[in-house]
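Exercise 7b. Backbone tokens:
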């Protein structure tokens, strides 16, 4: 009995460690962005820096798909319930119109990999339909806004902690004329990545929302069949993406 308990404890510890590692995706992404800033500063103004361009294209691919039977449930309710971002959107953000998506749902069991690391797939508990739809809507809206190049709207669907960290690190790059979240996203996005962003936004398919305490992950399938996990944040009933890109699980 003691032997079983030890194994069980070690398994729980391993899963927690993996989830914590996944939660640090943002820090890594921001480090890449700082590197991109440096490359942009040294490389000239046309955005032709192969280093930053490649990183951004890969990031766009990774952030790719998401969708779940969130479709228009929250959107048809006038954007309340957190899936539509800040209710006080102005300027460019106000021009963004959320699209309806149809997602497969089905829960996280479909993503379990035999012999693989299923820390996220088994994290916490499966959320109810309402929460899944609201979180999926936020992810879809983020991907759609980014694909349209509506950076202000994309920032509306990012968590406050992400935006604040983003802007704080970006402020260190003195060559940036616009250190706002929207300005940074626009500056860093390689035009060559736009087609990949559009494809990911169109094909995103959310299947699960795993929640434990104040941590949660949306699990979804990307354009090329990659299974991704996006950390999410529930900010007073408004779901937001809590990273700049989903992390591949397969």
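Sequence design result:
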């Amino acid at each position: 009995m003691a032997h079983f308990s030890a194994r069980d404890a070690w398994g729980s510890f391993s899963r927690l460690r993996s989830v914590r590692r996944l939660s640090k995706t943002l820090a890594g992404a921001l480090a890449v962005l700082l590197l991109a800033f440096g490359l942009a500063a040294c490389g000239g103004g046309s955005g032709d820096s192969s280093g930053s361009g490649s990183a951004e294209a890969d990031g766009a691919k990774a952030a790719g798909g998401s969708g779940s039977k969130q479709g228009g449930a929250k959107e048809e309710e006038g954007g309340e319930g957190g899936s539509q971002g800040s209710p006080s959107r102005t300027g460019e953000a106000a021009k963004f119109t959320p699209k309806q998506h149809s997602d497969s749902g089905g829960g996280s069991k479909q993503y379990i990999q035999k012999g693989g690391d299923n820390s996220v797939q088994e994290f916490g508990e499966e959320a109810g339909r309402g929460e899944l739809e609201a979180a999926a809507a936020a992810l879809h809206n983020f991907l759609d806004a980014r694909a349209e190049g509506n950076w202000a709207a994309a920032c509306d669907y990012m968590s406050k902690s992400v935006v604040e960290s983003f802007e704080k690190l970006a402020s260190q790059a003195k060559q940036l004329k616009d250190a706002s979240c929207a300005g940074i996203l626009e500056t860093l996005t390689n035009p060559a990545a736009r087609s990949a962003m559009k494809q990911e936004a169109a094909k995103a398919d959310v299947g699960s929302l795993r929640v434990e305490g104040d941590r949660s992950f949306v699990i979804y399938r990307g354009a090329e069949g990659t299974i991704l996990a996006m950390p999410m944040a529930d900010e007073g009933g408004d779901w937001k993406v809590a990273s700049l890109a989903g992390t591949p699980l397969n």
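Instructor comment: The longest strand covers residues 227-235. The longest helix spans residues 2-23.
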